[in-house]
Amino acid sequence: MLVLSAPTIPEGLLARGLLESEGIAVVVKGEAEGPYRVGPMELWVPAEYEVQARMILEDAASSGSSAGDA
Questions:
Q1: Number of domains in the chain
Q2: DSSP strand E in the chain: where?
């Protein structure tokens, strides 16, 4: 299931690392090879991990925005 379409490669790589650190297998689509890697980058996870993956990504997004507000 598609859980994230990151507009840039760095954002996608960070999200992929976060999901993989939680033990969720991630399939990446749209990642360009070579020295000039450009987005977008899609992250796909097995259907049984979709809800967990979305919760992890939403929690990280809300934590990141609140940290910038302080």
A1: 1
A2: 2-6, 27-29, 41-44
